[in-house]
Amino acid sequence: MGVKVSFETENFKSVRFIGKEVTVGKNNPVPDLWKKILNDGTNDFLQSMPERVSPAGDTIGYMGDFNPKTKEFTYIAGIFAKPGTTVPQGFSYRDIPDCLMGIGWIEGKSSNLEKGAHGKTEKIMKANGYAPDYSIAGISMEYYSFEKYANVKEDGNSYFTFGYYLPCKKII
Fold first, then answer.
1. Which residue of 79, 92, 100, 157 sits 20 to 30 Å from the alpha carbon of 142, by its own alpha carbon?
2. Pairing, β 160-170 against β 92-96
């Protein structure tokens, strides 16, 4: 079975994104980053922060700071917190401003829905009259909803829903 993609927009309110950071380029350290933070207590610590505003259990992968010369970008695995939250020592952060956020919801039986998510979201975004807007925030984010993404069933009919967030603007 293939994947199903739907689209919505949200008036995204500013947040401070806090997490652990790696640089992605010729090598992709992202799978190891997630494995580490989900198993070493880092995610538990982030989830317990009183300033956290993302729903309990939800995790987000921030992608930004793209360098066109090196083709490298920053990836941060973490959570949304209130603007101005004090960043714990050893963690990275980025402030994400108010913006119109396009969200591609990608559903399927595979847990690897992030593969090709950017292109799928751009395609459905354009089909709905929107285009990416990198002028406000040159970012995209992978959104793993605990309720939707971790929908593992004992009968083997697991179904995953993954969100891909991309600032956007209405096109004519």
1. 157
2. unpaired
165 closest CA partner among 27, 13, 23: 13
How many Cβ atoms are within 10 Å of 156's Cβ, its own excluded?
Answer: 7
User: β-pairing, 130-132 with 99-108?
Assistant: unpaired
pLDDT by position in tens, the chain (length 172): 578 888 999 999 999 999 999 999 999 999 999 999 999 999 999 999 999 999 998 999 999 999 999 999 999 999 999 999 999 999 999 999 999 999 999 887 766 667 778 888 999 999 999 999 988 888 999 998 766 655 555 666 666 778 899 999 999 6
Compute how many other C-beta atoms are within 10 angstroms of the C-beta atom of residue 61. Answer: 21
- Alpha-carbon distance of 93 to 86, in angstroms, equals 10
Which pair of structure tokens corresponds to residue 163?
């969100």
Q: Please, is 69 exposed, middle or buried when counting C-beta atoms within 10 Å of its C-beta (0-12, 13-18, 19+)?
A: exposed
For the chain, percent helix, then strand, then coil, each to nearest 5?
20, 40, 40
CA atoms in the 13 A half-sphere facing the CB of 139? 24
